[in-house]
Amino acid sequence: MPAPSGDWVTPARLSGIEQELASVLRTSDDVLVFQAEAVALLEAVARSIARPGIPCLNLVSGPYGRGFGIWLEQFGAEVISLEVPYDSAVAANAVEEALTQRTDIEVVALVHAESVTGTSNPVREIGPIAHERGAVVVVDAVASIGGTPLETDEWALDINVGAPHKCLGGSPGVSFASVSERAWELVRGNPAAPRDSFLSLLDWKEHWLDSDRSSVPGTPNVAEMVSLAAALDRIRSEGLDHVIARHELVARALRAGIVGLGLEPWAAEESAAATCVTTLRIPRDVPEVDFRGRAALYGAEVASGHDEMAGSLRIDHMGAGAQPSEVLTQLAALGQALLDHGHTVDVGAGVQAAATVVAAG
Ligand SMILES: *Cc1c(COP(=O)(O)O)cnc(C)c1O
Hints:
single chain, 43% helix, binds pyridoxal-5'-phosphate
């Protein structure tokens, strides 16, 4: 294929990408494409909503949630933090209680799937509760979109941030978000919201979305846009529901296999487990350091956790990596690496438990 020319990103192509993203986000709200990785867009969102003193309820169940709260604070918001241990999810009734205690809260921010902890928050329940209390609901769905059901409109999510390179199987470097009318009102009412800035959501709204999408603002990176469009094509041809089901099946099978091996999943409740990565506790008698290398020798890529995640192992299964057929290899490799370290596990039982889940679909 010849390299696309420098003017590949025409208004029609960019509008088409936005439409595809809107259907993946399941929204009729504005969708904007951001020319940088998701952490930059999340910072832009935090700056856009945080005016001095605005009361924000920030849910923390992992490092991305904690980081968003730090930004809100930096930009002058009053942050009320609702925090749970990193192996758990924030319960919807805890959010309801916090909103009853502080009826002046204007923003509720949360992460859907935390890709470091392998946990997931019940956005489906929290969104409508927070929205009904008048809050602007801000969700970091970077690691969940494409891996688990996500209904922006139905769940009343006002700002929903995603990226192509996790469960959607695209490449990193760009990100996107839906923005509801309620969210735009909040941003417009914030005198500190970025203007004439790369981080300005309002500039994008004015110069592109509200200007008949007639001329593409800035200088989009052609390679990234071509790659994003290609990822969306692949999603469309596989079918979003199928992509989601594949991630769910892999997560369920891997978890069953881990239990079958006699190991302990990190997320205590299955309902709190994410579908993008699976985390587990390393048995205390296993030296973590050389364990990774041993697992890699047999074909399992595992990452060990630090800080709050110390003593945990993570297995990623996002995008093209979410294949039921790979679960059995990973479990066999994990099991054999543990056996090599003198830890007793039943490798066959682990593989069989996962296979049973895969077979049932
Ligand atoms: C990966 C991730 C991000 C950051 O996305 P980048 O595009 O890599 O900056 C943000 N939030 C969550 C939950 C993630 O998993």
